[in-house]
């Protein structure tokens, strides 16, 4: 199998490595030439441009920071559209704005090209292990065609609906994830202030009804250990929340809980800068409570 990847960052880089390990012939394109060099050393084939990549690989995967970069990568002077063929399949794995995704896939369809949206969840650890969740929007037959490739990087792969549906559920999932991390942070900080031991609190929460991916994974591995190493930045989390909130606005529905959580995320973002890992939100909660949640 031959697959080209555009975007070799925290997620795309790990996916590319995983595909190489599984025997896939991998083509790469990234503006960061250090990333490109390190993948060429691992056996990947460097492309000169997105157009060049599309002309050489049947499957093209994009894992980019946002939809505006995806659009430029598609339509730019050396963009993917200059190299795609009717038999190519574009697998768009960026976390993105569903309405723009629909526009882009409609534009490609008019030119005789195919695209599915296939964002992922699970973070860098699951990307490394090939156990991501992948949520796909688009034609069923394109989903069926992409599944063998997606199975090499993901464990739970869902077809959720037409074009844009994958990006819709991804934004909603992250809204829940952001809210549970913030709520768990407040509860843990209050518990510490009241004299409880954070390790014991987590033992109780993780075998009780307050449990979530945040309490089960992020707190033990990143907060108690004070290991706020970048895997998924605050910039990206705030981007995802903006997408979710604007979907609600378009539908004219209120989001009481998520709006409160969003304000806290924006506070952390404005205070510390977007390049930190998203778990740094806990530091701003700790600051407000005057405690440290340390294991
Ligand atoms: P990242 O910033 O680490 O990587 C982005 C990569 O894209 C970089 O290597 C950058 O050089 C490259 N890039 C930027 N503009 C480019 C262009 N015009 N052409 C080619 N390459 C370009 O980001 P990430 O954490 O890997 O996230 C990528 C996407 O995956 C985002 O949409 C994010 O929301 C989503 N996502 C991330 C995680 C996570 O844990 N990091 C989890 C799920 C989803």
TrEMBL record:
Pfam families: NAD_binding_11, NAD_binding_2. Residues 164-285 form the 3-hydroxyisobutyrate dehydrogenase-like NAD-binding domain. Keywords: NAD, Oxidoreductase. Gene3D superfamilies: N-(1-d-carboxylethyl)-l-norvaline Dehydrogenase, domain 2, NAD(P)-binding Rossmann-like Domain. The keyword Oxidoreductase applies. Residues 4-161 form the 6-phosphogluconate dehydrogenase NADP-binding domain. Its EC number is 1.1.-.-. One of its GO terms (molecular function) is oxidoreductase activity. It is an enzyme of class 1 (oxidoreductase). It comes from the Bacteria. The keyword Mitochondrion does not apply. PANTHER family: 3-HYDROXYISOBUTYRATE DEHYDROGENASE, MITOCHONDRIAL (PTHR22981:SF7), 3-HYDROXYISOBUTYRATE DEHYDROGENASE-RELATED (PTHR22981). This is NAD(P)-dependent oxidoreductase.
